[in-house]
Amino acid sequence: MTTKTLATHYGALTPEERFRLILAAHARGDDTEAERLVGAAQRWTFSNVDYSPFAHALQEVQMITFMELIDEAARHDEARVRFNDVVSLRNGDTEDRANLSACLFQAYRIQIFILQTKAAGWNLFCERIGFAPFSTWQHLPGFDRLERALDGVAQCPALSPAELLESLNGTRPDGEPEVTAARLISADKYADEIERTFRVRAQRWGAK
C-alpha cells in the first residue's frame, strides 16, 4: 500500500491519533504527510466572545515574558555567585583578586540593570492595559526565584544608563562601533516590544 493510498484512510483516525501522527510527521520533516493528515481532519464550527483574541494574546505574552524574566533572574543569580566566590577567596595575588572582583561586580550590576529594566517594562505594559503584573504567575514553577531576585536587586546599586554606556564602551573589542544610548534597553522600549508582540498575537487569533 502506498503512502497516498494510506492517506485515504486518515479520516478513520481518532482526533488524538491524527494529532500524534501530525507531530511525528513534523518531527521528521515530512510536511507533505502532515498536510494530508491535517486535510483529513473534521472541521468544528464554534463561536466566541469578540475580545477572545486579546485574551489569548495576553496569555501568550505573559508566558513569553515570564520565561524571559526567569532567565534574567538566573543570570542575575549566577553573576552574584561569581562575584561572591571571588570576594571570599583568600589565596592568590591581592591586586589580581581585587581587579577580578571589580570586573565581576560590574557584571553583576549590569545584570541587575537588565533584570530591573525588563521587570519595569513588564509592569509598564500591564499598567497600559490595566492588568495586574504578577497575578497569574504566582503558582508557576520558578516564580519564587524571580521574586527573590527582584527583592534582592532592590537592595543593590544597579548601574545608571550613563554608567552602563561607559562600562560597555570601555570593554568593547577593538574595531567595534561605540555603543550609544539609543541601543540601550529601557522600560519604555521593553514595554513597547511586549505590546507589539501582543498586537501581532491578537491578530493571529482573529483580532480586527
Quick synopsis:
This protein is mainly alpha-helical and 208 residues long. The protein has helices at residues 3-7, 15-27, 31-39, 52-87, 94-129, 143-153, 161-171, 187-204. It folds into two domains: 3-39; 52-204, no CATH class.
Name a few traits of the molecule.
67% helix; 208 residues; mainly alpha; 8 helices
Give a structural overview.
The protein has 208 residues and is mainly α. The chain folds into two domains: 3-39; 52-204, no CATH class. Helix content is 67%, strand content 0%. The protein has eight helices and no strands. It has helices at residues 3-7, 15-27, 31-39, 52-87, 94-129, 143-153, 161-171, 187-204. α2 packs antiparallel against α3 (31-39).
Fold topology:
Elements: H1 3-7, H2 15-27, H3 31-39, H4 52-87, H5 94-129, H6 143-153, H7 161-171, H8 187-204
Major beta-sheet overview: none
Low-confidence stretches: none
Q: Supply the number of helical segments.
A: 8
**Overall outline:** elongated
Tally of distinct domains = 2
Helix content: 55-70%
Rounded to the nearest angstrom, the distance between the terminal CA atoms is: 46 Å
SSE pattern: HHHHHHHH
Quaternary state, please? single chain
Mean pLDDT: 87
Radius of gyration: 25 Å
Give the beta-strand count: 0
Please state roughly what percent of the residues sit in beta strands, choosing from under 5%, 5-15%, 15-25%, 25-35%, 35-45% or over 45%.
Answer: under 5%
Class derived from helix and strand content: mainly alpha
